[in-house]
Amino acid sequence: MRKQLLFFFIIVTLSACGTRKNTVSTTKAARAADAMANLKSKELYRFITAWTGVKYRLGGMDKNGIDCSGFALILERDIYGVTLPRRSKDQAEVINQKDKRNLKEGDLIFFSFGGNEVDHVGVYLNDDFFVHASTTRGVVVDDLTMPVYQKAIVKTGTLK
User: Fold this and answer.
1) Does this UniProt record's set of keywords contain Acyltransferase (predicted)?
2) 127 and 64 inside one domain
């Protein structure tokens, strides 16, 4: 009887581990990691990895603190060799608008969280993920399908 209970316990434990593995692989964090792993540009991967977690600081332009438009400016300059204006509102004026369903790696996504004007920018990666400097979490890869972002998107596109 003891051997049967031990056998039953081992089977239940192993099957629980197998079930957990499937659950973990579908989490937002795992999907964000997949988006990073699927980047076409390895330079972009290294850039994001180096900046992830840098705290938000309005007007910041370095790893002591950075804001969203500063992060987009530095990323686009260092990875794609293009120059953006400093403010997100002005950055939105220099892009060719495109439908968000057609976004490609490196395209810009503009948001309005405080009214009608653009007040935030992020850079599209793939599979509905983007990177940005969040006011509360610093530089982070986020899921564009989250309702908070879907409601706030005002413009998407690529540089002219």
Assistant:
1) no
2) yes
Q: Which residues are catalytic?
A: 68, 120, 132
- Cα of first residue to Cα of last residue in the chain, in angstroms, is 75
Cα angle: 81, vertex 83, 88; to 5 degrees: 130
Judgement on whether residues 49 and 8 belong to the same structural domain of the protein: no
Q: What is the DSSP letter of 64?
A: T
- Tell the burial category of 103 from Cβ atoms under 10 Å away from its Cβ (0-12, 13-18, 19+): buried
The per-residue pLDDT string of the chain (160 residues; one tens digit each, 9 = 90 and over) reads 544 433 334 443 333 333 334 444 478 889 999 999 999 999 999 999 999 999 999 999 999 999 999 999 999 999 999 999 999 999 999 999 999 999 999 999 999 998 889 999 999 999 999 999 999 999 999 999 999 999 999 999 998 7
Whole-model pTM over 0.70:
yes
Domain of residue 27 covers: 1-37
Q: What's the number of CA atoms in the CB half-sphere (13 Å) around residue 16?
A: 6
